[in-house]
Design a protein that fits this description.
two-stranded antiparallel ribbon; EC 4.3.1.3; Fumarase C, Chain B, domain 1; 2 domains; 6 strands; histidine metabolism; Fumarase C, Chain A, domain 2; cytoplasm; 501 residues
Length: 501
């Protein structure tokens, strides 16, 4: 893949995260031009932040010319203070690629060797070991990016087959040369929002498949509960005009077409209106789609952005604050709301299915209720996960703690805002998996009637891994197998809308 700085698309970022791309930069002129300016500043006598001064509260401290390389090395060593579990390989690939793309735009003053080191590491499959906690999302994602840089220098650690290994050994195995830093380069590498952006982008990419699967589980539940397809009439959604709602309603209509179950209850159905968890699916899921698309726009912009400090322009270096990750924090917080709501309405559909007064199915979806408990406690698990998501959905961006002796006195907390999305996605995937199992069981009770072709295909795929359960059995393994199918994206609704369009 040709890396065109500032022009990465969501589809390309998905390929980067999955390791389906090799990156190369064709035009080095902007990099060389800005590097020459920094070299001139380092050779001069005027104070330039990050080149010949200390950092943060120590910005007024001048550094001697013969100590400028040591200054950058010390910066990386002192800032590599993260804790917690390591970033996933997908997140690290995004961090390496977006940092390379940002530096390659030619406003950071690094030599081409720095950008090439990032590209070589990415292309070779080198995964730095980067703890996921320790950034407040302003002054850049300092600690995570410092760990990444330290690994490129051969002093940190690498992640190899899930294990921590000395980075120098892994660099040698991959025939990569350790990176040596010149003036400003350490600062350019760790200033920036690439860690929080990579975490949020990976969550967005994961959520896209989960969202499509939740559309499918909702459609399956609609038929299992013998719900009406009237609320999905295109005219209802056109007069409101919300684009996500319109698209989602179309998916539900397509999923319902041709169902014998639907035809069987068009006449003589005494229920005038379905519960909201069935009837309002386009309104809820459509709003989630619109939120996700807005987040995608913000995050793709950020993935292409120059977010370090100071920046090198034609004839001057200017200090600013592009490292403040507030856009990422807001995007992640909005994604959290969408992820939580997808799980919340799915949990309500499970509760509806096990209630015979609403679903008109056997109590708790079991053939002999009382002797058997059926899906009674599977729903409790879904409720626990949905409740946990509500706590996790509290906005991280409203919090701030001053750091660096009050020099950095307002921060975004974007890194946690993005990191917590992954736990929420895992929770919601399990909720949707439980719904799929419950809806499939409901459809089993309606045999010999057939659902629509798309729903029957989903039912058949689910049953290949999870047998019907009219009587009690050990259900947890079924939930895990179904959750694995959800996470793998093999139970998605056909023609589900994308987040990038």
């Amino acid at each position: 893949m040709k890396l065109i700085p500032g022009q990465l698309t969501l589809a390309q970022l998905a390929d980067i995260a999955a390791g389906r791309a090799a990156l190369e930069l064709a035009d080095w002129s902007a990099v060389d031009r800005s590097a020459a300016m920094v070299a001139a500043a380092a050779a001069g006598d005027a104070p330039v932040y990050g080149v010949n001064t200390g950092f943060g509260k120590l910005a007024s401290t001048r550094i001697a010319k013969d100590q400028l390389a040591q200054l950058q090395l010390n910066l990386i060593r002192s800032h590599a203070v993260g804790v917690g579990a390591p970033m996933s390989p997908e997140v690290m690939r995004l961090m390496l690629a977006t940092k390379a793309g940002s530096l390659a735009r030619g406003f950071s003053g690094v030599r081409r060797e720095v950008v090439q080191s990032l590209l070589d590491a990415f292309n070779a499959g080198f995964i730095p070991y980067v703890p996921c906690q320790g950034s407040v999302g302003a002054s850049g994602d300092l600690a995570p990016l410092a760990h990444m840089t330290l690994a490129l220098m051969g002093e940190g650690e690498a992640l190899v087959d899930g294990k921590r290994m000395p980075a120098r050994d892994e660099l040698a195995r991959l025939e990569l040369q350790p990176l040596t830093l010149a003036a400003k380069e350490g600062l350019a590498l760790i200033n920036g929002t690439q860690a929080s952006t990579a975490l949020a982008l990976h969550a967005l990419l994961r959520f896209e498949g989960l969202f499509a699967t939740a559309l499918a589980s909702g459609a399956m539940t609609l038929d299992a509960a013998r719900g009406s397809d009237g609320p999905f009439d295109a005219r209802i959604h056109e007069v409101r005009g919300q684009p996500g709602q319109i698209e989602v309603a179309a998916v539900y209509r397509a999923m319902a077409t041709g169902s014998e179950i639907r035809q069987s209850h068009r006449e003589g159905d005494e229920r005038v209106q379905d519960p909201y968890c069935l009837r309002c699916q386009p309104q809820v899921m459509g709003a989630c789609l619109d939120q996700a698309r807005h987040a995608a726009q913000v995050l793709v912009r950020e993935a292409n952005a120059v977010t370090d400090n100071p920046l090198v322009f034609d004839d001057v270096m200017v200090s600013g604050g592009n490292f403040h990750a507030e856009p990422v924090a807001f995007a992640a917080d909005n994604l959290a709301l969408a992820i939580a709501e997808v799980g919340a309405i799915a949990e309500r559909r499970i509760a509806m299915l096990i209630d015979p007064g609403i679903s008109r199915l056997p109590p708790f979806l079991t053939a002999d209720a009382g002797l058997h408990s059926g899906f009674m406690i599977a729903h409790v698990t879904a409720a626990a996960l949905a409740s946990e998501n509500k706590s996790l959905a509290h906005p991280a961006s409203v919090d701030s703690l001053p750091t660096s002796a009050n020099q950095e006195d307002h921060v975004s907390m974007a890194t946690f805002a993005a990191r917590r999305l992954h736990a929420m996605i895992d929770n919601t995937a399990h909720i949707v998996a439980i719904e799929m199992l419950a809806a499939a069981q409901g459809i089993d009770f309606l045999r010999p009637l057939q659902s629509s072709a798309p729903v029957e295909a989903l039912h058949q795929r689910l049953r290949a891994d999870c047998a019907s359960s009219p009587a009690d059995h050990y259900l947890a393994p079924d939930i895990e197998r179904a959750a694995a199918l959800v996470q793998a994206g093999v139970l998605k609704a056909s023609h589900a809308p994308s987040f990038g369009g």
